[in-house]
Design brief:
Helices cover 33% and strands 19% of the residues. It is of the alpha/beta class. α5 crosses α11 and α16 crosses α17.
Length: 487
């Protein structure tokens, strides 16, 4: 039975009816808690069936806007990840002293099982999926979610104390794991029946097993500064207990700096060094090290199905996380040697007339574009563009010029990316990349099919968010697959 005393006596307002918001509304309704929900999108976006269903359940819906009078009766806001803290509606709530929470924070507060939390600027989805599969291979009852898949609040009633939960956590979610986010709140003034439990829900919290895979510039369209972005990420480690464990990359400047503040708790993974209690490479083997740096071979690099050195790092991180949760080397090996990747990450869609079409729509930053390009030695046609996230393009532009035969730019960021490429071309010695411009993804795929020769890879790795033309990278990927399959 779920204990919801922390929410007793409160008027709940869900802001944003995306994946998390809808799951929360259904959860609150199932437990008899009155809830109001609002979304800035108009009613027709959701469809009559969804709106009618929520109305029949007694959910008070306000669609098409976030009117400030909604705050008059609200006691606690649950904010969806798509709604920035800087939005006028959220700032108005803060000015009124209303507390803020999220689906992921509520789930972690209520969950009876051990939680493994994974964050980073890149590699989160692959690493989270690997850890989940390793624990399943070990025979553990495992739940995987967070920033991927079904919101875990929907599964809460089924999760038991002996299970293990593997959560991918974004910076947007982790912002709410810092208690200082609600330092403006007087809990005694909002009518909570149990202010002590509400304080626990809104308090500082970190998972007992945590990972920061890497930290590089990302989401600077959302976080005011890089410092704010790093601060959000650090919530996953800052509030652990002394006996808890942290997994971090020794090869990333930021995680190396952060990790050294935690001493013996850190389990380092590296492609370049061997650390006690860590994971790394020894000759051609992926290995785990004990306190004396004695190697235990997990598998040979040749047995790994995933492309790219970045995925070797993801695998090493996954091994350390799974080991902390009790997985054996045999379980790790069984997954590593069969795992071919997650959907939308270097996913082969089709081979047509000797040309391979690859979906990497989950690549929403220049860094992930760089990793994708480095995963291939074949001739490449790259489809890149979308909505920029205020990130540096210099390195990606240089690599595009030197690794890609044809660069097809589309979407809002096309001008910005082409400018970076033009600047890089001034310093390029052996540039091969030819730049083409198209308005949409549809036109980009059409041109790619015309330019491609047998043996080529046509790679959708946008390096940008999708929001100029699609609701998510998943919708963008679905359109790419549709276009490819129609060729």
């Amino acid at each position: 039975m779920v204990d919801l005393n922390a929410l007793s006596g409160l008027n709940l307002l869900v802001v944003g009816l995306g994946r998390e918001g809808m799951a929360l509304v259904e959860f609150f309704q199932a437990h008899g808690l009155p809830v109001t929900a609002t979304d800035s999108r108009p009613e027709e976006t959701f469809g009559d069936a969804v709106v009618s269903s929520l109305a029949e359940q007694g959910v008070a819906l306000v669609l098409g806007d976030h009117p400030l009078d909604l705050l008059d009766q609200a006691s606690l806001l649950f904010v969806s990840g798509g709604v920035p803290l800087s939005s006028p509606f959220i700032q108005a709530a803060v000015e009124r002293g209303l507390p803020l929470c999220t689906e992921s924070k509520l789930f972690c507060y209520l969950c009876p099982a051990q939680i493994i939390g994974i964050t980073g600027s890149s590699g989160k989805t692959t690493t989270t999926t690997l850890v989940g599969q390793m624990l399943v291979a070990e025979g553990r009852r495992t739940w995987v979610g967070g920033n991927i898949g079904q919101p875990l609040i929907s599964e809460l009633e089924q999760i038991q104390a002996g299970d293990v939960v593997v959560m991918e956590l974004s910076s947007f979610q982790l912002e709410y794991f810092h208690a200082r986010l609600n330092q403006h709140v007087d809990l005694n003034a909002i009518g909570a029946a149990n202010p002590t439990e509400l304080a626990k829900l809104l308090g500082d919290w970190s998972p007992s097993i945590s990972a920061i895979l890497n930290v590089t510039p990302n989401h600077l369209d959302r976080h005011p500064t890089m410092k704010d972005y790093v601060r959000a990420k650090r919530a996953i480690t800052n509030y652990q207990k002394p006996e808890d464990a942290i997994v971090m990359s020794l090869d990333n400047d930021m995680t190396r700096t952060i990790g050294r503040q935690f001493g013996q708790k850190v389990r380092w993974f590296s492609l370049e060094a061997q650390m006690p209690h860590g994971a790394g490479l020894l000759n051609e083997d992926l290995v785990l090290f004990d306190a004396q740096v004695e190697p235990t071979v997990v598998t040979n690099k040749s047995a790994v199905k995933l492309r790219g050195s970045h995925n070797l790092s993801n695998i090493l991180a996954a091994c350390l996380l799974a080991k902390e949760a009790g997985a054996s080397v045999e379980a790790m090996r069984a997954v590593i040697t069969t795992f071919t990747g997650v959907e939308h990450r270097l996913e082969v869609v089709a081979e047509i007339n000797g040309v391979t079409y690859v979906n990497d729509s989950i690549s929403t930053s220049p860094e992930r574009l760089i990793a994708a390009l480095n995963a291939f030695s074949e001739s490449l046609i790259l489809l890149a563009g979308g909505r920029d996230k205020h990130l540096p393009w210099n390195e990606a532009a240089w690599l595009m010029l030197h690794k890609v035969q044809h660069i097809i730019l589309f979407g809002e960021a096309a001008d910005l990316i082409e400018a970076a490429i033009d600047k890089a071309r001034l310093q390029a010695l052996h540039a091969i990349g030819q730049v083409h411009r198209r308005t949409s993804l549809d036109e980009a795929v059409e041109l790619a099919a015309q330019l491609a020769q047998p043996g080529y890879i046509v790679l959708l790795s946008p390096g940008c968010a999708s929001y100029d033309a699609f609701s998510s990278y998943v919708e963008r990927a679905a359109r790419f697959k549709e276009l490819v399959n129609n060729l």
